[in-house]
Recover the amino acids of this structure.
């Protein structure tokens, strides 16, 4: 018999602890408004997860990241179908298309990001189906993930998101450099991940688009940009509505180009501090 309820009454953290302590195997289905998610566990540890708007097979994820060729993906799928018992993740490593460690790193990042957003749900129906297993083509991690890490990081992000969203209410916001960095910018030293985000700021891309181009999570991009905001290096603006396009013509006006001189001045100022 399935266990059902609402996370308003029985929090996600509490449920994850229950799965862990009970050494449970099965799937936790969550739904709220038009959102849905599925978390699969094996003996109390998470093996894969997906959100309604982010569902993808393991080959689709690897193809997006350039870690697999289309022919390799097809070969792996054919091999998995003929095998029957192995997951697609197992087949990919057995064919030596990707190492076990690299596959774990890619899948874990994707799966963790799918789960962390669920901690912010104020309510939502849940149903735990005992002994339900994921599709063999799902992004199943080679090494199952302990739930303690998920809970600690998920709760931490809820606290940080509350502060960040005061300045960055949506990932559809566009980031642009300010003309004159303030005094707070003095002494700023950027870490490698911060440089990756900094280099992608062009006054046109949204935070979500910067996330895709840097392969960083939306949370990490927002956290980094929040730091830039606090330092007085950037500002965030709402994405403008699409310009009307006359029949057979071009848009009435084009988006302004980024002033390269401004970017160079800011980079040089940071490096010289």
């Amino acid at each position: 018999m399935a266990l059902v309820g609402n996370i308003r009454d029985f929090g996600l953290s509490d449920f994850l602890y229950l799965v862990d302590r009970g050494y449970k195997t099965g799937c936790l289905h969550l739904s709220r408004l038009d959102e849905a998610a599925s978390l699969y566990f094996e003996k109390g540890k998470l093996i894969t997860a997906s959100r309604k708007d982010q569902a993808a097979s393991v080959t689709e994820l690897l193809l997006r990241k350039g870690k697999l060729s289309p022919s390799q993906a097809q070969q792996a799928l054919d091999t998995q179908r003929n095998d029957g018992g192995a997951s697609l993740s197992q087949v990919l490593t057995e064919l030596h298309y990707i190492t076990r460690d690299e596959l774990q790193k890619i899948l874990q990042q994707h799966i963790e990001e799918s789960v962390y957003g669920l901690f912010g749900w104020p309510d939502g129906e849940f149903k735990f189906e005992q002994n339900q297993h994921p599709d063999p083509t799902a992004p199943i991690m080679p090494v199952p993930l302990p739930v303690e890490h998920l809970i600690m990081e998920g709760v931490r992000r809820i606290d940080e998101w509350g502060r960040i969203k005061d300045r960055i209410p949506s990932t559809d916001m566009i980031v642009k450099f300010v003309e004159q960095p303030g005094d707070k910018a003095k002494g700023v030293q950027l870490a490698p991940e911060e440089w990756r985000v900094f280099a992608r700021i062009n006054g046109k891309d949204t935070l979500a688009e910067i996330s895709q181009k840097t392969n960083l999570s939306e949370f990490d991009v927002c956290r980094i940009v929040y730091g830039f905001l606090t330092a007085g290096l950037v500002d965030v603006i709402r994405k403008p509505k699409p310009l009307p396009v006359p029949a057979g013509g071009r848009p009435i006006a084009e988006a302004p180009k980024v002033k390269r001189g401004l970017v160079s001045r800011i980079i040089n100022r940071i490096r010289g501090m």
